[in-house]
Amino acid sequence: MQFLANLQRSTRLLAAGERKEPQNLQELADEVRHFPGAQSAHYCRLWARHLEWHLQDQHAKMSQIRGQSRRLWLEQCLIYQDLVASLEDVAQQMNSGEGLPIEEQLSELEALVEEFAQSAQEMQAWLESNHARCLACGWDGEQPSCPHCQKQLLKPVREARPAHLRVPLADKQAQVFDTVVAVLEGRDDLESLWEPLQDLLNDYCEANQRLNLAADEPEVTVVAQIIGGALDGLDEMVRVFEDSDAQHLEDGWHRFFHSEQCLTAFMRGELADGDAVALDFQEL
After folding, report:
1. How far apart are CA 255 and CA 252, in angstroms?
2. CA-to-CA dists, residue 218 to 27, 206, 214, angstroms
3. At 284, is the pLDDT very low, low, confident or very high (cuts 50, 70, 90)?
4. Neighbouring-strand partners of residue 133
5. What is the per-residue pLDDT across 183-194, written as a single tens digit (0 to 9) for each?
6. Residue 97: phi, psi to the nearest 5?
7. Residues 275 and 225: beta-carbon distance below 8 Å
8. pLDDT in the model for residue 46
9. Range from 23-37, 92-106, 140-154 carrying the lowest mean pLDDT
10. Average pLDDT, the chain
């Protein structure tokens, strides 16, 4: 999630002895400690406004989540509010000399920045865990399906495998891809994937059987190997119905898609026989 990346960027350390306009909260705390004054007070107020805006923006996006994600987010909301108040207090102290001693205020600010970083790490760890949850709202109770969204709980994708090339997809392939995306985004239930996935799997099984009948031809051997890789990818995707782990969808589609890339390249004469035979689909 993008806001987590923003949170983590907000806590990077400033190099020793370096002074520049603070780009994150840790740099801001360093600025205040080493260079207290009107300029640092200005930065504190700018960051307080930025955090207020960011809190409102993310609260609107996170208002519908449930389960552990909601609990972690509500805790982060409190840290946001405390940080804004602390930044305002520090700015006021540097401008007027009123209120708590600056050292006490600064220690409080630094503690809140550390707490802020830890909360972001906890949220990231939760999102990357293999604990099953509703991919629509995040509900993670004991039931197999979400009582709010009526969708099967799934372990989320923990390791994304982006494709860097494009391959035109036939209708059945495109239907499986679109359904996988809808499941991972929480728009469709996993059950909606079963029929199109089985339909595509049957087509590739039939193609593989026909190729086996003409296995003596060198080109057929190459295509059969590529089709075998595609079948392995589809079989991997089917495993999600056994253990409710959406990582199978990510890994399986990645394998299937790269097999399709190899097949397209071979049909265009861009892949030599030896190259195709040597392909290790596990490394794609």
Report:
1. 5
2. 63, 20, 9
3. very low
4. 154
5. 999 999 999 999
6. 75, 10
7. no
8. 92
9. 92-106
10. 84
Which conformational region is residue 212 in: left (phi greater than 0), alpha (psi within -120 to 50 degrees), or beta? alpha
CA 245 to chain centre: 15
67 — alpha (psi -120 to 50), left (phi > 0) or beta?
Answer: left
CA pair distance 128, 150, nearest whole angstrom: 23
Cα 29 to Cα 44: distance, rounded to the nearest angstrom: 9
Q: CA–CA separation, 212 vs 231, rounded Å? A: 14
Q: Is the dihedral of CA 67, 70, 74, 76 positive or negative?
A: positive
In contact, 79 and 115? CB cutoff 8 Å? yes
Name the residue with tokens 């079963």: 194
Q: Side-chain half-sphere of 252: how many Cα atoms within 13 Å?
A: 22
Question: Does 36 have pLDDT greater than 80?
Answer: yes
Q: Give the pTM.
A: 0.74
Place of tokens 């050292």: 103
C-alpha to C-alpha distance for 70 and 138, rounded to whole angstroms: 8
Joined together, the tokens standing for residue 25 give 């909260």
